[in-house]
Design a protein that fits this description.
The protein has twelve helices and 15 strands. It has 415 residues and is an alpha/beta fold. The radius of gyration is 26 Å and the shape is elongated. It starts with a helix and ends in a 5-residue tail after the last helix.
């Protein structure tokens, strides 16, 4: 651009020189502003040191503001930054060194990036800063960790972030909006995981992509029928905490909530195949259901969300028990409807309804079901779950099960 300006000023010596300089300055300012507005790029990270002092380093294209804090149970360091574009090498983040056992990164919310560093014991964040780029070296995020004892860790944790009272959180539970009697039923589809939490299938297509693609296909079919209002808890690769998924359904006045996932078994039992349907129960129906619920409930921890305390869970469960008996009955009706349709049009892992304490199914006033589409650990299932033909056929079956469920509700069949 500067070369063009020189040609123009040579042709018009006086006035043209001023105009040329102004244009050049404006162009440079625009380029600088554009560069400033672009998100920082993180293209590498590493861990150094030992158990006495462990350093996490991430290379950035420019300096950014960060917020760094600790969480316990399990031990984690959380690094939040505005809109970072992660272009890290494949497979990075599994290195174990010093106090660090692993780290992961991704979009945590629109315009907000997060790095989560797993730590193998009580620790203190000794230093956390971002260096300006210098001498052809990139900007660098640096986090230094040192070991401590559990008592000191808990004291520092409490000082850094006072806890909100459980009663205040429960009092803030959303209320369902009032709706006219002839309003269309609201269906909320919940594609699991997203953003910083990829879900299962570490060596193939991430679960978060598979379930979002299916949810969008199912939403399109339900919307085309014109019988329902249909919403997704996430429309893109963004992480949504479990509690916010439940609250989203309640705020929308959902008449049905379907959480969509894909399972993953260890290689030694990777022959498992087909879909499985789960409902909520504090007592798991079997060990497989219990293990799956533990894994899905850990989603928040993976993304750096503080898990509820035991007292919170007990108090919340009291409210659930008072309000949820009818809801659980309706959830079971919907679950049986899905099993019936998938048995005739798809592949089922088992016709038996399974149940466990899934946090994402705990809205006391919304019939809720969790659908595991299949097993990404099984190569045949993975091929099916990433096939457009399979998606269309299975979405048709699930849409039909939703029609069957609401037909029974409208007919006032006893539940």
């Amino acid at each position: 651009m500067m070369r063009v300006q020189r040609v123009l000023t040579a042709a018009v010596p006086a006035r043209g020189l001023v105009l040329g300089l102004l244009l050049a300055m404006t162009g440079s300012s625009a380029l600088a502003a554009n560069a400033e507005s672009k998100p920082a790029i993180a293209n590498d990270a590493r861990v150094a040191g030992d158990r006495e002092r462990t350093r996490f380093i991430a290379d950035l294209s420019k300096k950014v503001d960060v917020h760094v804090f600790a969480l316990g149970n399990p031990y984690r360091v959380i690094v939040d930054a505005p809109d970072v574009n992660f272009q890290m090498p494949d497979g990075i983040g599994k290195e174990k060194r010093g106090l660090v056992t692993a780290y992961r990164y991704g979009l945590f919310a629109p315009g907000k990036a997060r790095i989560v560093i797993d730590v193998n014991g009580p620790f203190l964040i000794d230093k956390a800063f971002v260096l300006e780029p210098r001498d052809e070296q990139p900007a660098r995020l640096v986090v230094d960790l040192v070991p401590t004892d559990e008592k000191t860790f808990l004291v520092k944790l409490k000082e850094a972030k006072p806890q909100e009272a459980a009663s205040e959180r429960l009092a803030a539970l959303p209320q369902a909006p009032s709706r006219p009697p002839d309003a269309k039923p609201v269906v909320v589809l919940d594609p699991g995981h997203g953003g910083i939490d990829p879900g299962t299938n570490p060596n193939g297509v991430p679960e978060k992509e598979v379930v979002l693609a299916f949810a969008k296909t199912l939403k399109a079919k339900l919307a085309a029928a014109g019988r329902y209002e249909v919403y997704l808890t996430r429309e893109d690769d963004t992480f949504v905490p479990l509690r916010e998924r439940v609250e989203f359904a309640q705020k929308k006045g959902a008449g049905l909530f379907l959480s969509i996932h894909a399972d993953y078994f260890p290689k030694e039992i990777d022959k498992a195949t087909g879909a499985t349907v789960y409902t909520l129960s504090e007592e798991a129906s079997d060990e497989e259901a219990r293990a799956l619920a533990a894994k899905e409930n850990f989603s928040d921890a993976l993304a750096g969300i503080e898990l509820p305390s035991d007292s919170d869970e007990v108090l919340a469960n009291i409210l659930i028990d008072l309000a949820q008996r009818e809801t659980q009955n309706r959830s079971a009706v919907f679950a049986r409807s899905i099993v019936g349709e998938l048995a005739s049009k798809g592949t089922l892992h088992t016709k038996k309804l399974r149940s466990a304490g899934f946090r994402v199914l705990k809205a006391p006033d919304v019939p809720s079901v969790l659908l595991e589409l299949g097993f990404l650990s099984n190569p045949d299932d993975e091929k099916r779950l990433t096939s457009e033909t399979w998606r269309e056929r299975t979405a048709d079956a699930v849409a039909e099960s939703i029609d069957v469920y609401f037909a029974k509700r409208l007919a006032r069949n006893p539940f």
